[in-house]
Give the backbone structure.
Amino acid sequence: MSGKVVYGDAEVVEQEHLDSAATCSLFALALHLELEQESVHAATTIADFPKIVTPDRMLPQTLAGLHKIEHANRTQAYRLLWRQSTDFLLQRSSTPPDEPTNWIINAEIPHTDELASELQAFCLSPDVRVKRFKVAKDFRKYIHKMIEELRLDIDHETERKGSPYTLVCVKNRASYKRRLNEYAEDVRYIGRLLTLVPQGETEEAERVKRLEAAKAAFRSK
């Protein structure tokens, strides 16, 4: 849950995102009641709230549900939802992510003390992969906390030799690996969108061509 909103005497809990089944039911009901303009307005509004109705995952699932309903894929609302999802995924994953060519970690350390400055310099170094902090336990915990809170691509381990011990930090490729996984999943949904093209395919021929090219780029990588 993301928080609470008060309407009069009622307290309503806001959700971070909707369930795709609920979104599908909303548009299915609008179709059944012939609320064409209302469903178009809803589809347009959804585009302004990508964290509530995610265009990369929830919209393809919503479209898959609507596609099973007769004539649903002929509606303007369906077309708008399909375009939102298609455009988002093509913008993010039309081509494979570039493999990193250096060890720079783009991060802003929100502190100005000496240890934070050292960590910042380490992150921005393109060549240095290992940094050793020979500091007391509290300072090691402080560095550990910054790495965890900022989700830095750094593995860290305490070397228990000498006094004080040394926190050994080694850069990794965690973000790149996450992006590769996201890209592979995006391409799977791109393939799904190709099976959910709105009725009147000629109107979407250019987008369909770009989706097919994105799938081909994945296969050839």
